[in-house]
């Protein structure tokens, strides 16, 4: 039995070690490499760098806004697509279809649609009597534009998990709530959401990790601009490692990114832990 278990788990554990644990350990070691030997100079340099501190601020804003927004949209779509209504299958396909497109490809398409001069979005706004927007070329709108792209590309993925969670809720609970006089809203807040708590926690944690690692839209469309408004944490690490060839500093950034992700995830577990 032990040999069978090792045969099943061995490849997965080996892959986890080779592509997750080992790179993390090596990044931690490399982050301590300085010109004078071993030390924390790379961390000190990062914390005194205005560009790096700005990337932390941008990333925090990005996650604090985007994570709840995506979860709310995904829950709303799951509730809608879980109803027995005509066209439900077509609606599910339409919601999940963007997930099939690589984020890099989706970024290119959205970049064309968001062109200030001849983009499709401004054409639609013009038809509605709304003035053209700068989108990705504006320091005030660029981060919001990245959020739109990431939400369009990924919210369908989380909707599927939430639909699966909804289908696991026993009908008897809704019947009992209806007998007690509960309407749709009371059923939502006192039956549906509490029963979805574990699914929502999983989606929130996985979505948070994914959003911390979003790179393609920023690199393809803005390269961290304008004026650093979309310079996310992961993009700043890329810049340090590959644009400035400072791998120890980039490794220190990776360690700090891991710490930030763990803190976010721990806070979410704390907020949504089972009573």
Tell me, briefly, the overall form. globular
Average predicted confidence as pLDDT: 88
Give the neighbour order of strands across the main sheet. Answer: 1-2
Number of domains: 1
CATH architecture: Orthogonal Bundle
Unreliable runs: none
What's the total number of strands? 2
Distance between the termini: 37 Å
**Total helical segments:** 13
The helix content is over 70%
How would you name the CATH homologous superfamily?
Answer: MetI-like
Q: Quick one: CATH class?
A: Mainly Alpha
GO cellular component, one term: plasma membrane
GO biological process, one term: transmembrane transport
Domain ABC transmembrane type-1: 56-267
Membrane topology: Multi-pass membrane protein
Account of the 3D structure:
It is found in: Cell membrane. Belongs to the binding-protein-dependent transport system permease family. Pfam families: BPD_transp_1 (PF00528). InterPro entries: ABC_transporter_permease, MetI-like, MetI-like_sf. Keywords: Cell membrane, Membrane, Transmembrane, Transmembrane helix, Transport. The chain has about 280 residues and is mostly helical. It has one domain: MetI-like fold (Orthogonal Bundle), CATH 1.10.3720. Helix content is about 75%, strand content about 0%. It is built from 13 helices and 2 strands, in the order αββαααααααααααα. It has helices spanning about 1-30, 40-45, 50-80, 90-100, 105-115, 120-125, 140-165, 170-180, 185-195, 195-210, 215-220, 235-245, 245-270, and strands at about 35, 35-40. A two-stranded antiparallel ribbon has the order 1-2. A hairpin with a 2-residue loop joins strand 1 (about 35) and strand 2 (about 35-40). Helix 5 (about 105-115) packs parallel to helix 11 (about 215-220), helix 7 packs antiparallel against helix 10 and helix 10 (about 195-210) packs antiparallel against helix 13 (about 245-270). The model has no long low-confidence stretch (mean pLDDT about 90).
